[in-house]
Design a protein that fits this description.
Blueprint lengths: L18 E5 L4 H11 L5 E6 L2 H13 L8 E5 L5 H9 L7 E4 L16 H32 L6 E8 L12 H24 L4 E8 L7 H9 L2 H7 L5 H7 L3 H6 L11
Parallel strand pairs: 1-2, 1-4, 2-3, 4-5, 5-6
Helix pairs in contact: 1-2, 3-4, 4-5
Length: about 270
């Protein structure tokens, strides 16, 4: 399952002047998505992640991709796995976003067979992949619904949450026991929130929930995974060989986005 799966006919509309939050936006898909499709299309972008140095580097790259110098690009350092810290950070921003992208996660240190990994890796993988997404989505939905009660609007508003999940949510491979479980949880969260979005929507505000399922692509996280990935896992997912060979067979993050169709959530067209 290469690239992204389309999950919504509606897609995500143009970003011009729209505020966007990216939970986990300091590297990989988080950074590439908004360097290529968010900031370059006129969005006001705020990225949230743990490491300030990486955030600052990402912010500089996203700034360079802006359509207009009036676009805001902010970087906030926090632990996305701490719900109260995350909620406070979301609420402290100058703008309430129209779009939340949940991108945080990975399995660079939790990869391995179930009999080989420490029990704590099961917990950390669930925290990094599921709870970071769930906490961000819950906080954002609360902020939006509170705003709906207080705001007077002249035109309807579209509010969207997009989860960047994984093809692992559909297919488990040996070596990914911790990771696959966490991604299945995100898929279940998405399905549930899509139904809850119908309850929250009104003539004044439409809520939509999206989910994308990328498969293997070249990124810094992938390179870390390769160091401890079991040989059986590499054979089954076809990630054996030199880096030069892998780069020929698998897309880099930006290549995935460029190849998405207009109705796919990742394309943001």
């Amino acid at each position: 399952m290469k690239g992204y799966a389309a999950v919504s006919r509606q897609g995500v509309r143009a970003f011009a002047s729209r505020p966007v939050f990216v939970a986990g936006g300091s590297s990989g898909l988080g950074k590439e998505d908004f360097q290529v499709t968010g900031s370059s299309r006129g969005a006001h972008v705020t990225i949230f992640a743990r490491r300030q140095e990486t955030l600052d580097e990402a912010r500089n790259e996203i700034l360079a991709a802006r359509q207009d110098t009036k676009q805001d690009v902010n970087a906030v350092s926090l632990d996305l796995g701490k719900p109260h810290e995350l909620d406070a950070a979301f609420r402290s921003q100058a703008r309430i976003p129209d779009v939340l992208y949940c991108v945080a996660g990975g399995t660079s240190t939790e990869i391995g067979f179930m009999t080989d990994i420490d029990a704590g890796k099961l917990e950390s993988c669930m925290r990094n992949n599921y709870f970071t997404a769930a906490y961000a989505a819950q906080s954002m939905l609360k902020i939006w619904t509170e705003d709906d009660k207080n705001a007077e609007r002249l035109s309807p508003r579209l509010r969207q949450i997009a989860f960047i999940n994984s093809a692992a949510a559909f297919l488990g491979l040996p070596g990914y026991a911790a990771y696959t479980s966490s991604k299945c949880a995100v898929r279940g969260l998405t399905d549930t929130l899509r139904m809850e979005a119908l309850r929250l929507s009104s003539p004044a505000t439409t809520y939509t929930i999206h989910c994308a399922f990328p498969s293997t692509f070249i990124s810094p996280a992938f390179l870390e995974e390769q160091k401890s990935k079991p040989e059986l896992t590499k054979r089954m997912e076809d990630t054996m060989g030199s880096m030069a060979d892998l780069e020929q067979r698998f897309p880099v993050a930006r290549g995935i986005i460029a190849g998405c169709g207009e109705r796919r959530v990742c394309a943001l067209r």
